[in-house]
Amino acid sequence: MSLAIGVDVGGTKIAAGVVDENGTVLAQIRRATPARDADRTADTIAEIASALAAEYGANSIGIGAAGLVDEDRCTVLFAPNLAWRNEPLGQRIGRATGLPTVVENDANAAGWGEARFGAARGASSAVILTVGTGIGGAIILNGELVRGTHGLAGEWGHMVVRPDGRRCGCGLRGCWERYASGSALVADARELATLDPARGAGLLESAGGRADQISGIHITAAARAGDPAALECLRNLGVWLGRGMAALAAAFDPDVFVLAGGVSEAGDLLRRPAQESFTSLLSARSFRSEPEVRLARQGNLAGLVGAADLSRAV
Fold first, then answer.
1. pLDDT digits over 219-246, tens only?
2. Which residue range(s) make up the domain with 11?
3. Would you tell me the Gene Ontology cellular component terms (predicted)?
């Protein structure tokens, strides 16, 4: 059996695991990410990868990291949350472990995990949307991961969907993630509860009476309990997701869309309005099958599993 080690490097935690050819995680180790210390972070990755390799054996290592990765999948060019600039992470971990190592953008790794072993398994082409603080994701076309010239394919949160709309942190106005992300969901719910406390009473109650404390967890819980305002907020988010997805369908023509990330935990309360909005705007509907919108299945293992699988091609 061919085993690979997958590592998912986030701003607060590092998760590593031994993964078999079927995408099954056989063992895991988790560590806190050293706070903005590039060398200690790399040393921690090497330590846990070496420990797993020594105990279980492995043929390769794949690392998913938030940031810009070079075209050779070896160097992290820029990862602000991890304090990495031009970090030769692949070479560094490879030397420490004696195993061939590749580095992949974390959204690409997670998307590949869903495509190979999760909600998009069996689909020839898929778009995976990671809906969290912002919107990112991955593109799989004809079974291949699309990275783009600079490794930035899938950064569609900054597509402008509403010219002269809300100001985005990137400097533009009307970016998709200002209307269809977890941040947008929370901002809209807080605004609703502030401007109309009677209508937002359920949301306010869940947050201890303070609109500025309303979170995505509060919104989802209230919606599941049938709160009209919370349901409206999720429905509006789904509508905006669907609008952007229709544009992506015109560009990539996927078999399936997968909703991943923290916001997708709202389940069908988000998926259904997203599917309806997307379908209503889908071009050439009379001449094509309609891509299905599915919920991610891999959860927080997607990045680890995807990184491990991508390393097998080394």
1. 999 999 999 999 999 999 999 999 999 9
2. 4-112+301-311
3. cytoplasm
